[in-house]
Specification:
The structure holds two protein chains of two kinds.
Chain A lengths: L2 E2 L3 E6 L3 H12 L4 E4 L7 H4 L8 H6 L12 E4 L7 E2 L28 H4 L1 H9 L17 H15 L7 E2 L2 E2 L23 H12 L5 E2 L9 E2 L5 E2 L21 H4 L1 H4 L5 E4 L3 E7 L6 E7 L5 E11 L3 H10 L17 E4 L2 E8 L17 E3 L18 E5 L21 H10 L3 E8 L8 E9 L5 E6 L4 H20 L4 E5 L16 E3 L23 E3 L14 H19 L9
Parallel strand pairs in A: 1-14, 2-3, 2-14, 3-11, 4-21, 14-24
Antiparallel strand pairs in A: 4-5, 6-7, 8-17, 9-10, 12-13, 13-14, 15-23, 16-19, 16-22, 17-18, 18-19, 20-21
Helix pairs in contact in A: 1-13, 6-13, 7-12
Chain B lengths: L1 H11 L1 H5 L5 H7 L17 H13 L7 H6 L3 H12 L9 H5 L7 H4 L11 H4 L17 H13 L9 H8 L2 H13 L9 H13 L11 H4 L16
């Protein structure tokens, strides 16, 4: 039987980006917080130090920092008429595990969404008509707008020391920055990172075509920075080992380099690692959470009673935790009723390889996870969709995160896949190839969703979560359109050859695309189509807050982390300044 | 005007600029072979780019030294490059005194191999190579005199040495205690310097050898089957180049 522990004010599920921020804010408000982390404790020293950290086989191929799929994973199928099977080798997306979560192995791209993302349903209806896409598409408004979140974006970016150049300061356009972005109250805390050569060629080509290039915002430091928590970061060394790796130089923003150093000194915070939460416990009314049950590293089961439960797991696991706890009505794709698992979305990525002559040295190894030049001309609703027949868009950019030897060996189409001709081609093209990325939005449909698998279970005997997903028609059209634009820019960069194409069906989990799994515990103003209210508070149990990319009703063109960080501060503020004063539903 | 100035300097310091062998203004302190002395650090085998950067810094005031600053100011960039290239190609010698040899196998301080989480300082060898034996254009530390190492760190700490564009070294030096710096200095001084050079000729020779040796790396398992890429697709970020 489970050992019942002493009650705490707050239990935080997952000590990653969301968990660390919430624990910091709630301990500052005087609450006792227990943080439960399924993985191991880990720190810049000694866990991320070179030369061991640059072991590409261990970290990139064997994915040492990711969820252990021998213990738990997801099952996957493209459509409801297929039988889902467990993913035992992570490829398409990479959920992290351990202290700091996926914010340890991320690249560091830190973007704000647009008002057209937050109010997608109403603004698209205003601009293109109510039935522009038809009834199968279930995209909707978030219940919050950009203006609500701006101060929290700001706070998160200053915590993380984001490097970039503002293009819209309080409505004033600033050339050289992203002039198409929503207004910012103030400049980024740090200047943009240096522009690599390939990015400079992209900038010139994009400018020549009439677009508005700017440096992509990065969480890889351009200079030493001390954040408002008093934690210092060092400058990025452009080693090319960001994504799938921890940073040895204290130069990439992560919980370890921004908030954990102060949180772990806080007496009111208790960190427990190797704790696998089994479920959120509810009282008889099923309207109040009483705490959680978890199994520790020795296999012993504990009940941790708590007055407040914060669910801050990887997006997919937020959904699974609610399903396992029977909190909220699971989504049923046949009736369209139910909310938990509804509106699962992804990221529609593609790209083109840009092959140059041998005089053009790209030096792809000399990059950070997010330095590079991008355009937002085809992001979100920054362009007219009326004649295009799709919604959403993509940013296009020369953002090469690395040139690591095992993973990066671009060769032109027609090159044999192995043998001496392949090797010759790799040697010829390795240092003379640039990549233009297309990072596109993902729209919600009735058919893509998450539920519990009827067959497969994890190492603790709990059902795995089942993913049912394929790219919607809308996103294929978007990808075709945006990848064409990327190809035009790539050609204008002076390439000898440009090769690539749009994203196509079927979605496959055997090729890396993006770790931006979003939706499933959607936020909104209407409880019949959302799991949490605009403050990320459960409609069903008001003392449960669910925070993360799982709150996105659909995914935007940009990377999700900035919005996840903003939602974390937004929810923390609502808890401290509204909920604690009068515990109960914040929206009725 | 600048060119005329350079010509004048070339004339004044003819031995340095014209001959491959640097003149006495280098060797008087650093030794004939750049192996260092009580007054000056070993420079033999340091990366050419690093040595050039230091000379430029002395010339421009980003680094200051009573002897080095005036010398560097009087050297044209070509002369600085030539001196840097000369010393970069000399093999560093192991110190001859037995005391150093006896301590060569001592255990490195944790800061060398591991770093210090409390101080938020990463391990030296992330940038300076295994046990401080050098890496890419970053200098080796092994075999440098303790006095030189300590004064270097002191200059980073007080901000007078501005040779690190990333500003990582000033941050690190500021976080280290005097005792840390002393222990590191003693360790590196006890170690033999790396027995290799950054000679461009040697690097070229190595490249040729690799390229002409048949069958190297053919047993390496690389490519689509382990990385999940379609056979004809390349492996760019974001699935670029896939069909």
């Amino acid at each position: 039987m489970a050992t019942r522990l002493k009650e705490t004010d707050v239990v935080v599920l997952g000590v990653g980006l969301v968990g660390a921020i919430l624990a910091r804010e709630l301990t500052k408000a005087g609450l006792e917080v227990v943080g439960l982390e399924r993985g191991e404790p880990r720190y810049t020293v000694p866990d991320f130090q070179g030369p061991a950290m640059h072991d590409e086989l261990r970290y990139s191929i064997r994915k040492s920092l990711m969820m252990d799929t021998a213990k738990e994973t997801y099952t996957f199928r493209n459509s409801a008429d297929q039988t889902a099977l467990p993913i035992r080798r992570l490829q398409s997306f990479l959920p992290g595990t351990g202290l700091g979560g996926s914010a340890v192995h991320w690249n560091g791209q830190t973007w704000r969404f647009h008002e057209a993302d937050f109010r997608m349903r109403s603004l698209a209806a205003e601009r293109y008509g109510k039935d522009f896409l038809g009834p199968d598409y279930t995209f909707q408004d978030w219940g919050v707008g950009y203006a609500d979140l701006e101060p929290y974006y700001d706070r998160f970016e200053y915590l993380m020391g984001i490097c970039g150049k503002a293009g819209n300061l309080q409505g004033k356009k600033v050339p050289g920055g992203n002039v198409l972005e929503e207004p910012r109250a103030r400049e980024y805390p740090n200047p943009a990172q240096k522009e690599p050569f390939g990015s400079a060629m992209f900038r010139k080509a994009a400018e020549g075509l009439g677009y508005h290039p700017f440096p992509g915002p990065s969480a890889n430091m351009s200079r030493p920075y001390t954040n408002p928590e008093g934690v210092s970061l060092g400058t990025c060394m452009f080693c090319g080992y960001c994504e799938r790796y921890g940073c040895e130089h204290y130069a990439k923003s992560s919980p370890q380099t921004t908030v954990l150093p102060v949180l772990l000194k806080e007496a009111r915070f208790k960190l427990r690692t190797h704790c696998q939460v089994q479920r959120i416990n509810l009282d008889r009314s099923r309207r109040v959470a009483t705490g959680v049950t978890y199994v520790d590293g020795k296999g012993a089961e504990y009940e941790q009673p708590a007055k407040l439960v914060i669910v801050g797991l990887f997006a997919l696991n937020n959904v699974r935790m609610l399903l396992l706890s029977k909190l909220g009505e699971p989504y049923d794709p046949r009736s369209g009723k139910g909310v938990v698992g509804r509106n699962y979305t992804y990221q529609t990525t593609s790209g083109v390889n840009v092959f140059f002559d041998e005089k053009t040295n790209i030096n792809p190894f000399m990059r950070s996870g997010s330095c590079g030049t991008t355009i937002a001309d085809f992001v979100s609703d920054n362009f007219d969709h009326a004649k295009l027949g799709f919604l959403g868009g993509a940013y296009i950019g020369e953002v090469m995160s690395h040139g690591r030897p095992i993973e990066f060996h671009p060769t032109p189409p027609g090159t044999p896949a192995w043998g001496s001709q392949w090797k010759k081609a790799v040697i010829r093209h390795y240092n003379h190839t640039s990549v233009v990325n297309v990072h596109g939005s993902s729209i919600a449909t009735r058919f893509n969703y998450l539920d519990l698998d009827p067959t497969y279970k994890d190492a603790w005997g709990q059902p795995l979560m089942r993913m049912t997903f394929d790219f919607p028609e809308n996103d294929l059209k978007m990808s075709a359109f945006c990848t064409e634009r990327a190809t035009e820019i790539a050609k204008a960069m002076g390439a000898k050859q440009v090769a690539g194409g749009p994203r196509t069906r079927p979605y496959t989990v055997t090729q890396y695309q993006s770790t931006h799994n979003t939706g499933g515990t959607v936020m909104g103003a209407d409880r019949s189509t959302s799991v949490v209210n605009r403050y990320c508070q459960s409609w069903d149990a008001p003392n449960v807050f669910v925070i993360g990319a799982s709150n996105f009703p659909q995914n935007a063109s940009y990377n999700p982390t900035d919005t996840v960080g903003a939602l974390a501060y937004w929810a923390a503020d609502a808890i401290v300044n509204k909920y604690l004063k009068s515990p109960g539903p914040l929206v009725t | 005007m600048k060119n005329i100035g350079s010509v004048l300097l070339l004339w004044v310091f003819a031995p340095v600029a014209v001959l491959a062998q640097p003149g006495p203004q280098c060797t008087a302190c650093h030794g004939d072979q750049g192996q260092g002395s009580a007054q000056a650090p070993r420079i033999a085998g340091q990366p050419q780019a690093y040595l050039e950067r230091q000379l430029a810094a002395y010339a421009e005031g980003a680094r200051q030294h009573a002897v080095m600053s005036p010398i560097a100011k009087n050297l044209a960039p070509e002369a600085r490059a030539s001196a840097a290239s000369h010393f970069a190609q000399i093999f560093p010698n192991a110190p001859s005194d037995s005391a150093s040899g006896a301590t060569a196998n001592r255990k490195p301080p944790a800061l060398v191999t591991r770093g210090d989480e409390r101080k938020q300082v990463q391990a030296c060898q992330n940038c300076h190579g295994p046990l401080g034996t050098g890496q890419a254009d970053n200098p080796y530390l092994a075999g440098l005199s303790a006095q030189y190492f300590q004064s270097s760190l002191a200059e980073f700490k007080d901000g007078s040495r501005k040779t690190d564009a990333s500003a990582q070294m000033p941050r690190i030096a500021a976080a280290l205690s005097e005792a840390d710096i002393k222990a590191l200095a003693a360790y590196f001084a006890s170690q033999p310097p790396p027995t290799r050079t950054r000679s461009p000729e040697l690097q070229e020779a190595g490249r040729e050898q690799r390229e002409t040796a048949p069958g190297t790396a053919t047993k390496e398992r690389q490519g689509g089957d382990v990385t999940g890429t379609e056979p004809s697709g390349s492996q760019g970020p974001g699935g670029a180049g896939t069909k």
